[in-house]
Amino acid sequence: MATCSDATDVDADQFICSTFNQSTVIQLNVTYSSKWNYSSVISLPEQVLLPAEATSVSFNVTANDVGQVTTYLHCNNSDLNSLSVRIRFMVVHSNVLSVIGEVIGWVYFLAWSVSFYPQALENWKRKSVVGLNFDFLALNLTGFIAYSVFNIGLFWVPDIKEGFLKKNPNGINPVNANDVFFSLHAFLLCVVYISQAAVYERGGQKVSWMALLLLLIGWTFALVSLFLAVAKQITWLDYLYYFSYIKLAVTLIKYVPQAYMNYRRQSTEGWSIGNVLLDFTGGTLSILQMILQSYNNGEDDYPQPHLAEDNTHQSQFPNGLNCSPTCFPHSIKINVQICNVQTANKVQLSQ
């Protein structure tokens, strides 16, 4: 069984298929392998012949063992070469485990998303935010602003997406639609918390000077980085990475003020236990998914990945085509449809 995805973020309806006037010899150049010898993962044909006037060609790939291999297509046709086509092969232990992993992913996504509501409901019921630490609110808001900026940039801004693929030719864009939804949803709920803090009883609480200092450092860092990006001293992709560092730093420290406040008061009144339980559930399922995927993809016994000597194609995040046979060896027939792209020089792969 094989499933395919195009090597770019361009939608399928943006591709216009065309033919070539002469026969084309296509070679599969391996640029990444999770094992030292890629042939221990899959067996590839030495070359594939695309007949003249043809829009597709089929070739057999045999899966030998669990692992990942990424190839770039090179041929004697300059027009096709300019498209820089890549195919990712992933051989897993079981398709069932892959489905279970996806289900777990959606469950923890929902758990994390829903985890924001118990606190808002608790505040509304009590008409009070006493017990909810304002340092936590301020840090959490900053963290999700940074997370949203990172996700929006890598998901929606074409120049940044192109920059990521240039920097990581074998890479996969780490941001999906659900990541964007989660970060924006979390940001809006943080705004709801702060709105509640503005109108409900707060017991004279305010943001501490330490939290204000940390926020000042974070936003000064973001502002200086912005000037550097505008001046082209750093790339916009690097600028987004700096926002991800802000989010990481916030995540590491944001619960400390709340935990200290609970300890000092000897009470968790005002701090929703539902939020904690759902957050813990999401985190536990996330770790479970990583363990499951690590076993299924064979990553628990991967040696140092082999990267081909072609430096223009080196990356540790392969992407492209996903092959998932459940037993070995299996012969997989893959149909590659050659297309021209209106807005990006890429090729779509279809099963």
TrEMBL record:
One of its GO terms (cellular component) is lysosomal membrane. It is found in: Endomembrane system. SMART domains: CTNS (SM00679). The keyword Transmembrane helix applies. One of its GO terms (molecular function) is L-cystine transmembrane transporter activity. The keyword Transmembrane applies. Its main location: membrane. Pfam families: PQ-loop. Keywords: Membrane, Repeat, Transmembrane, Transmembrane helix, Transport. InterPro entries: LC_transporter, PQ-loop_rpt. It is a multi-pass membrane protein. The chain crosses the membrane at residues 96-117, 137-157, 177-195, 207-227. It catalyses: L-cystine(out) + H(+)(out) = L-cystine(in) + H(+)(in). Gene3D superfamilies: 1.20.1280.290. Belongs to the cystinosin family. This is Cystinosin isoform X1. It comes from Scomber scombrus.
